[in-house]
Amino acid sequence: MSDNRPFAEVDRAKQQVREHIWNVLDAAGAAHDASTHGRIPNFVGSEDAATRLGSLPAWQRARFIKSVPDKAQLAVRALALTEGRTVFMAVPKLADPHPFYLLDPAALTVPPAEAASSRIAAAIAPKVGVDALRPVDLVVLGSVVVNRAGVRIGKGAGYSDLEFAFLTEAGLIGEHTLVVTTVHELQVLDEELPTTTHDVGVDFIVTPQETIACPSAYRPSGLVWEHLSPRKIASIPALATLAAAR
């Protein structure tokens, strides 16, 4: 459910929550970076969270996985490729007419653990358009903070939500698609979080110690055009094409 406050006010409230969590993680030494501020935290225990995620039946059934490129989810991508699952990963800022990297485990020229690195993936994986992708079984998101109802806040750039909406519009994400995030336990709150109608909720939260099911997580039905500025639309070729066709 979205927050009824003005969009700018909700955005300010999100940033306050981000700053709090970044401070908590830094104080606890719960991430590998000297500071987590401004990024998806590369949290301590991400490998254990990936292993826990890999035990979920939904993961074991998944053949096609859409993942963020963040370091915190590196172990998740490596696990997927090692197990023979195809991974789709967005080109940075979707700033290419072919906005996704296609990591096909059968076509890798380097070991899966190396191919899972966003830097190496960008060098070895073909860029493809939406027409080359398959329906997504499972979406892996990075988070700054998430609550037990499945409301998630990212680092503020908005690309994960945009990619999700874009693939929903293309019919590649649907009711069958599950959404998961891996985080440190300090990133999980019990309280309500600010959210808007374009924010993607998660079905499962996986920490190194716990798996949390969120059975009523919200997800948008597609792109929320009124939340996209003309500048943002123009910067994303695939989005500009969709906008021109409206």
Give an overview in words.
It is a single chain. This protein is of the alpha/beta class and about 250 residues long. It is built from 9 helices and 11 strands. The strands form 2 sheets. Strands 4-3-2-1-5-8-10-11 form an 8-stranded mixed beta sheet. The chain is globular, with a radius of gyration of 17 Å. The two termini are about 25 Å apart. The relative contact order is 0.17. The model has no long low-confidence stretch (mean pLDDT about 95).
* Residue windows where pLDDT falls under 50 for at least 5 positions: none
Mean pLDDT: 93
Shape: globular
Number of beta strands: 11
Distance separating the two termini: 27 Å
SSE ordering: HHHEHEEHHEEEEHEEEEHH
Structural class, judged by helices and strands? alpha/beta
Per DSSP, what share of the residues sits in E-state strands of 2 or more residues? Answer: 15-25%
The main β sheet shows up as: 8 strands, mixed
Brief synopsis:
The protein contains nine helices and eleven strands. The chain has helices at residues 7-28, 46-54, 57-61, 74-82, 112-115, 118-124, 159-169, 230-235, 237-245; strands at 64-67, 86-90, 100-103, 127-128, 138-141, 145-147, 152-153, 178-182, 188-189, 204-206, 211-213. The model has no long low-confidence stretch (mean pLDDT 93).
Keywords summarizing the entry:
alpha/beta; 3-stranded mixed beta sheet; 8-stranded mixed beta sheet; 246 residues; single chain; globular
